[in-house]
Design a protein that fits this description.
Chain A: This is Branched-chain amino acid ABC transporter permease. The complex is a heterodimer. By secondary structure, chain A is mainly α. Chain A contains twelve helices and no strands. The chains are: A mainly alpha, B mainly alpha.
């Protein structure tokens, strides 16, 4: 059902994204803590989160910097982690492609995992939503998550080394993505895509530069598309 | 550890690169219609890439120095099943985190 106004669409997105505060908060704190431990000062750590705004890639870059990897390898690896966002960009374009240029640029900057996952699920659920409500919903999902990412990076940077590693808070990240996968598995094609992505990424985990992730994602995508074609053929 | 100049090259390079990746289709393609075969593949991007992102983190958890550990796999399964059956992401994360805490305390 469409929302009555863009404002109500914004607040619906905001509410749907609230659970991610529990996820993004500790994760941002962890990045702040690890970055300062790696020798970055508070300003550099905050700048990292504001400029890059991509958790997994930031951690990957940090890890490689500590290993004294060459700059070009650090950039290539961390960007490889982010290549999945090209797929986000492509898959959200049919829904948001018609909004004005600067809104698209702003949306691209904020196209983080959580905003993408919530928005695409909403758009696929309710394709009849008007364009301005789709855009408002997107920024609604961004509003609680992204500012929090900056603020809690700062908190983490200031806290420094106070958090013991035995707390395992970094495992909250995979848990969050796992929780998001369940509701996405609506058809056999979705399940085939997920199972293939999982299997291929594990088999290819030894590949350098996070290529296993990209390979798994592409293989899963093809498996989902082929399964869809197969199921349509059987239904006829 | 990395020098200051190298650090800023990484921050700015990563920021620009990440933006361009996110902007690629949204910015340059706009509302021109995309071919059906492309859309059919894009429908499965999230559901393919998220398990691919998660699987290695579960099998080789950083919290256990990258060594496989049943507690992480059980907690991951708990989070996934809670999400699948309840569709409640927050509940699933909390359930997974709680089961990991309990499992790591017990074993």
């Amino acid at each position: 059902m469409p929302f009555s106004t863009p404002k109500s669409a914004f607040w619906a997105g905001f509410r749907d994204a609230l659970p991610f505060i529990v996820v993004a908060g500790p994760f941002a704190i962890l990045f702040g803590v690890l970055a300062t431990e790696a020798g970055l000062n508070v300003f550099e750590t905050l700048a990292f989160s504001v400029v890059v705004i991509a958790g997994a890639a930031q951690f990957a870059a940090l890890q490689l910097m500590e290993e004294n990897a060459p700059t070009i390898i650090i950039l290539a690896s961390a960007l490889a982690v982010n290549l999945r966002m090209a797929m986000y960009s492509a898959s959200i374009t049919p829904h948001l492609g018609a909004v004005p240029f600067w809104w698209r640029a702003l949306a691209a900057y904020f196209l983080v995992d959580q905003a993408y996952a919530l928005s695409i699920a909403k758009y696929e659920d309710e394709p009849e939503l008007p364009l301005n409500q789709k855009l408002a919903y997107f920024f609604g999902t961004v509003a609680p998550v992204c500012p929090l990412w900056y603020v809690f990076t700062l908190v983490g940077a200031v806290i420094g080394k106070q958090i013991p590693t035995s707390w395992n808070i970094e495992f909250i990240m995979p848990l969050a993505f796992l929780a998001m996968i369940g509701p996405l598995l609506r058809t056999p094609a979705h399940m085939a895509a997920a199972a293939t992505g999982l299997t291929v990424s594990l088999l290819a985990a030894g590949l350098p530069y996070n290529l296993g992730l990209l390979l798994g994602g592409c293989a899963g995508m093809v498996a989902g598309a082929r399964t869809e074609v197969f199921m349509e053929g059987r239904a006829k | 550890m990395t020098g200051t100049l190298q650090l800023w090259i990484i921050i700015i390079g990563l920021g620009l690169g990440s933006f361009l990746i996110r902007f690629l289709f949204l910015g340059f393609v706009g509302d021109r219609p995309l071919p059906p075969w492309l859309l059919r593949h894009l429908r499965y991007t999230a559901v393919a890439i998220l398990p691919a992102l998660v699987a290695p983190l579960v099998v080789w958890p950083a919290g256990n120095d990258g060594v496989p550990h049943p507690s992480y796999m059980i907690a991951a399964a708990a989070a996934f099943l809670l999400g699948y059956f309840t569709k409640n992401v927050a509940l699933a994360v909390a359930g997974g985190a709680l089961s990991l805490y309990v499992l790591l305390t017990v074993f």
